[in-house]
Amino acid sequence: xxxxxxxxxxxxxxxxxxxGIKWMRDTLFGVLQFPFPFLWLQFIAGFxxxxxxxxxxxxxxxxxxxxxxxxQLKYKKK
Length: 78
Fold this sequence. Notes:
Blueprint: H1 2-28, H2 39-67
Protein name: DUF2627 domain-containing protein
Pfam families: DUF2627 (PF11118)
Keywords: Membrane, Transmembrane, Transmembrane helix
């Protein structure tokens, strides 16, 4: 059960990061998506969404690896 909960916790920010990449790509090609009135706003929202999703997933993986002692010595808890 806890594996499914962890999967859902990682999936939501992962989807958020994918949407951020899509919005930035659409801005590059000049395609304006519905909730955004301007291309520059769409790019900023995409960048923030991608950064937040990537940071969350990266932090989740780092926390899990630190708990299982699979990180370098300088990252282990003292």
